Amino acid sequence: MTTQPAGAAAGADFTTQPRISVRDAEDNLVPWFTGTATVAIKPGTGRAGATLGGTLSAPISDGVASFTDLSLNLAGDGNVLVVSVPGLTSGETAPFTVAQTATKLAYTGQPGGASAGLPFTTQPVISVLDAENNVALNYDGPVTVSIKEGTGRAGAVLSGTTTLDAVAGIATFTDLSLDLAGPGYVLVADSGTLTPAESTAFTVAQTPAKLAYALQPGGASAGLPFAVQPIVLVRDAENNLVPAYDGPVTISIKDGTGREGAAPSGTTTVNAVAGIATFTDLSLDLAGAGYVLVADSGTLAAAESAPFAVAQTPTKIAFAVQPGGATAGLAFATQPVVQVRDAEDNVVAAYTGAVTLSIKAGTGTPGAVLSGPTTVNAVGGVATFAGLSIDKPSPGYVLTAGSGAFLAESAAFAVGPGAYGLDDVAKALRWAGGFSAATPLDLFTHDVETSGASNGVLDALDASRIARKVAGLEPNP
Ligand SMILES: [Ca+2]
């Protein structure tokens, strides 16, 4: 070796190319020698797999041969070249180093499996390469990944550890994510000095992750549709609306909230439209405080509404106890009880208004009078009457209850005849004898021969029975 190779960098011609000379045994130049010198890597030296490039043969002229364009493609230490000439002892270079110059970045692993707000299932891998596209094993500087301007969705943000130090020339990202779904994202890898690299374009999908109330339920009154019906959104991990979602969303009462035993009514399950579930007719049957509604899809994270109260609105009155056991002129054995109720027939405990009873026009005996305290203030939503009586007997009385705008009617009931007198005995005898015709009301009041039942005929038996009552032999009435 007359000149040792030097200035070797991977993929580049050595800046100092080797030169050999032919010597005799005494180490003197043999200027008359002609032939061809061939150079090769000495096996087992340098980087495994390295190849020697350039013109590997050089003519020997005046005992000297010069190589001009040798290069090694891989960086490494301890490279030794062997120069051989047929018939002569081979020569070897001193071990030398092939340096490596990092020049550019490249995506050796493309980002993929991206869904808004979730780490890519395939994270990008960036390699630092030299001019020969060999990984620059010595490179351990930082590599930063960012969204290429103008690609993907405007305003998107790349999250995760976006800057990593390369390890042996390779930067392996682990937790990158993008917050907005969209097609055509391109990531740029940049080190500040090396030629940047761009990923292939990829799409960020959108995965529905959770539900959220966009509009809270409100204006609730027992049995009536909420004045403000809830609206539930389907969102991805980044709280973006998921317009592609059209699955069902179901509303239920959160266990342990509101009134025990309450149940929602209306269309409690609706399909989302463009990621929005709009309820229209929900109601709750029981008044109470602290109701929380759960919106659930079965798969996405459920949402809870803010707590709200269900008020109670009186909507009607009703006879809870029907009048009964009535005898003309005597207090009903069973006095009526009227309740003020909400739309769900729950008693409106807060109601204290007056409730007034009257005989419904056209029922009972014309001119009959309802006596007693016919107006009672409700207590706890309940008006309890006492001491009411009707003076004239008849079947088919109906009482009307009124309170404000609310009206209710009782079931029809009979007011039986009061105590009989001698004139009743006389009347009965006249009807029994056919001296006068009995009206239906006469039949109702004087057909008494069987206890509590009528045989539909006024005859002598009825007259005798009434006579026994008048005489005190039977209860009267
Ligand atoms: Ca009879």
Give the oligomer, counting copies of the same chain as homo and different chains as hetero: single chain
Mean pLDDT: 94
**CATH fold type of the largest domain:** Immunoglobulin-like
Total number of domains: 5
- Show unreliable segments: none
Largest sheet: 4 strands, antiparallel
The hetero compounds bound to this protein are: calcium ion
Q: Give the termini separation.
A: 149 Å
SS content category: mainly beta
Give helix % range: under 10%
Provide the spatial order of strands within the biggest beta sheet: 5-3-9-10
**β-strand amount:** 35-45%
Question: What is the strand tally?
Answer: 47
Indicate the radius of gyration in whole angstroms: 53 Å
Give a structural overview:
There is one protein chain. The protein is mainly β. It is built from three helices and 47 strands. The strands form 16 sheets. Strands 5-3-9-10 form a four-stranded antiparallel sheet, with no helix packed on it. A four-stranded antiparallel sheet has the order 17-15-21-22, with no helix packed on it. A hairpin with a 6-residue loop joins strand 33 and strand 34 (303-304). The site of calcium ion (CA) has 8 residues, from helix 3.
